[in-house]
């Protein structure tokens, strides 16, 4: 296809504003997929994505469209992940296209992820076409929302297209706008090959599939190509496009988006954002801005049933094959046994992986408190990247500790603003901005990431009855008064419960933790002190009093079967316990204690 007849675009939207439904419509109305093969949300492939209504990996489809000008166009849609955790993937896929449809639910208006995603599109120099969706609903307010787009985002929305992705109104206008408003890609077929590695994933039949956007030159089957970040050479054994099923073609030229396979074993060997060129007479310089995505949130994953450790290893290995941004290493915990310390792009990423292990591999997990990476500067001048509180060195050797901070943008209806400000303040936030757009307030906070990884989303949702939207980006590191808090049960430290906290919040956290544990740990035949401590200093303490009588005592000795039943029940209960020194701590205690509130 010649460049003037190609349009590459993505759709940016806040979750639930109708991105996937609109994509389905565009695919359907251009007969890209026969009606009988059409199923809802064609682009969201994984079950968990469907259930949660989020798109995790970028997906792509090539649409052929005969426009009103009588010409045939190729439209390539890259569906970007809609969540903050995947911001880096979003920014890469944005660079692979020239324009964006900005979808805003006309019954809701601009939300935090609308902003985050549209700023990415603006950064990538996109032409942006605003689309007001859900106009079939009585609550639709196109004028108000168009005005809000102009006020808050600062782009012209006078020609915003009014659409119902549900009924199909405005879909033709949207296709025409893609052709007439978005620019054609630029590129040179005769220049050395330069293609961007947009995404990659593991396919059980084909091995690693690589999504590419060709900038200059051409790619053909049998070509030997070089991945510029690490110099590896691969021979292309299959090449094609998505409609949306994979279809082989002979050549991918400038401006085109498609896939290659090249006998690549693991997703880890391909890096999103990398430049692919030819082995011989390749491009001299790579495309700019390549940086591998880094995990920012860490936690331990342990099987509830320690016999399932090997199954867990297997599950993690398999998931990692398809997700290069997820890191792991083995970890042993005195309390929880064998497990893995895992690194994630963010909390949603953590949740997705944990859910997949539990569901797809049927392994019940204990997740330890999520931690961020602290920079620990030692008195001897060395620096440690600490992502497991258990590895915290002796404080007497520590000079100072830095923690990561984020810039968080929160949009919320006026009525709930007070509660949101209070929550941010409690979490050591510093307000940077507060503005209004209609009856919604937008506030920007500088917050420590560690205060957000616990339960910030959940708290935000509950104090605003679900009306707030939230987005963040990492800004950098800052020194603060941070300490490791340990939890001791019967004088023994329980490693899985130790955490890094701000000194000013330590007492409160410690108190909450010991009170919770007191309710969660069953009474034993002896007294059990439960303590929270910083270094050697106890900051909170509870005592679990001793159990006076044998459980069977209340059976009055008479009924043998009843006595047996009770003992069996106790034994079954025991199985789910972890022996800790002389104390048995039930699994439930860890799970609940690690949920902060
Ligand atoms: P996404 O999260 O942006 O991909 O949003 P979805 O496409 O999954 O849509 C979210 C919800 O809104 C789904 O229940 C859709 O059926 C619904 N929806 C999408 N577009 C429209 C529309 O034009 N009108 C109405 N009434 N509902 C819509
Ligand atoms: Mg979706």
Task: Produce a short descriptive summary.
This protein is 26% helix and 34% strand. The protein is an alpha+beta fold. The strands form 7 sheets. An 8-stranded antiparallel sheet has the order 11-10-16-7-8-15-12-13, covered by helices on one side. Strands 2-3-1-4-5-6 form a 6-stranded mixed sheet, sandwiched between helices. Strands 21, 22, 23, 24, 25 and 26 form a 6-stranded antiparallel sheet that branches.
Termini separation (Å)? 57 Å
What is the average of the pLDDT values? 86
List the strand order in the largest sheet.
11-10-16-7-8-15-12-13
Output the number of helix runs: 14
The Rg value, from CA coordinates, equals 27 Å
Domain Tr-type G: 4-186
Binding site for GTP: 16-21, 133-136
Protein name: Elongation factor 4
Catalytic activity: GTP + H2O = GDP + phosphate + H(+)
Q: Could you characterize what this model shows?
A:
The chain has 597 residues and is α+β, with helices and mostly antiparallel strands. It contains 14 helices and 33 strands. The strands form seven sheets. Strands 11-10-16-7-8-15-12-13 form an eight-stranded antiparallel sheet, with helices on one face. A six-stranded mixed sheet has the order 2-3-1-4-5-6, with helices on both faces. Helix 1 (19-29) crosses helix 6 (171-181) and helix 12 (503-520) runs antiparallel to helix 14 (587-594). It is globular, with a radius of gyration of 27 Å. The chain starts with 5 loop residues before the first strand and ends with a helix. Mean pLDDT is 86; it is low at 46-50 and 52-56. Residues 13, 15-21, 53, 133-134, 136-137, 164-166 line the site of guanosine-5'-diphosphate.
């Amino acid at each position: 296809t010649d460049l003037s007849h190609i349009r590459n675009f993505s759709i940016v939207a806040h979750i639930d504003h109708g991105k996937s439904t609109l994509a389905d419509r565009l695919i359907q109305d251009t007969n890209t997929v026969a009606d009988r093969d059409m199923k809802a949300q064609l682009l969201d492939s994984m079950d968990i994505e469907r259930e949660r209504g989020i798109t995790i990996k970028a997906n792509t489809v090539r649409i052929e469209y005969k426009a009103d000008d009588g010409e045939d166009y190729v439209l390539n849609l890259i569906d970007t992940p809609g969540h903050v955790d995947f911001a880096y993937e979003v920014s890469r896929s944005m660079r692979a296209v020239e324009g964006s449809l900005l979808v805003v639910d006309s019954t809701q208006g601009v939300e935090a992820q609308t902003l985050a995603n549209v700023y990415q599109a603006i950064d990538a120099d996109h032409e942006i076409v605003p689309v007001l969706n859900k106009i079939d609903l009585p609550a639709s307010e196109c004028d108000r929302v168009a005005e809000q787009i102009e006020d808050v985002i600062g782009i012209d929305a006078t020609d915003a297209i009014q659409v119902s992705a549900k009924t199909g109104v405005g879909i033709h206008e949207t296709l025409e706008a893609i052709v007439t408003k978005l620019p054609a890609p630029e590129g040179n077929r005769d220049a050395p090959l330069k293609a961007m590695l947009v995404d990659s994933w593991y396919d059980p039949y084909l091995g690693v599939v690589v999504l590419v956007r060709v900038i200059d030159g051409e790619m053909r089957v049998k070509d030997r190509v070089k991945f510029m970040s690490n110099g590896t050479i691969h021979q292309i054994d299959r090449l094609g496009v998505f409609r949306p099923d994979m279809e082989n073609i002979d050549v991918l030229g400038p401006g085109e988006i498609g896939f290659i396979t090249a006998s690549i074993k693991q997703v880890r060997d391909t890096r999103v954002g990398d430049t692919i060129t030819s082995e011989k007479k390749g491009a001299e310089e790579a495309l700019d801005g390549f940086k591998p995505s880094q995990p920012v949130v860490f936690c331990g994953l342990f099987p509830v049933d320690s016999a399932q450790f090997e199954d867990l290893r297997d599950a993690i290995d398999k998931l990692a094959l398809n997700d290069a941004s997820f890191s792991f290493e083995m970890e042993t915990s005195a309390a929880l046994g064998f497990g893995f310390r895992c690194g994630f792009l963010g909390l949603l990423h953590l949740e997705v992986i944990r859910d997949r292990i539990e569901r797809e591999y049927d392994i019940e997990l204990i997740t330890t408190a999520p931690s961020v990476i602290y920079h620990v500067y030692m008195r001897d001048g060395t620096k440690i990247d600490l992502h497991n509180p258990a590895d915290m060195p002796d404080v007497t050797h520590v000079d100072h500790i830095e923690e990561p901070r984020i810039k968080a943008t929160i949009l919320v209806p006026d009525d709930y603003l007070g509660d949101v400000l209070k929550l941010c303040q409690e979490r050591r936030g510093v307000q940077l901005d507060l503005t209004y757009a209609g009856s919604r307030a937008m506030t920007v906070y500088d917050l420590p990431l560690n205060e957000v990884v616990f339960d910030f989303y959940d708290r935000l949702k509950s104090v605003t009855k679900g009306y707030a939207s939230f987005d963040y980006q990492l800004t950098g590191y800052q020194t603060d008064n941070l300490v490791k808090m340990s939890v001791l049960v019967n004088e023994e430290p329980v490693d899985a419960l130790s955490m890094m906290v701000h000194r000013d919040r330590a007492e409160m956290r410690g108190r909450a933790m010991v009170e919770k544990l007191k309710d969660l740990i069953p009474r034993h035949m002896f007294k059990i002190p439960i303590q929270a401590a910083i270094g050697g200093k106890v900051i909170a303490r509870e005592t679990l009093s001793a159990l006076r009588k044998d459980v069977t005592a209340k059976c009055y000795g008479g009924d043998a079967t009843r006595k047996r039943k009770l003992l069996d029940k106790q034994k079954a209960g025991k199985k789910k316990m972890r022996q800790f020194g002389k104390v048995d701590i039930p699994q439930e205690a860890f799970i609940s204690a690690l949920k902060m509130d």
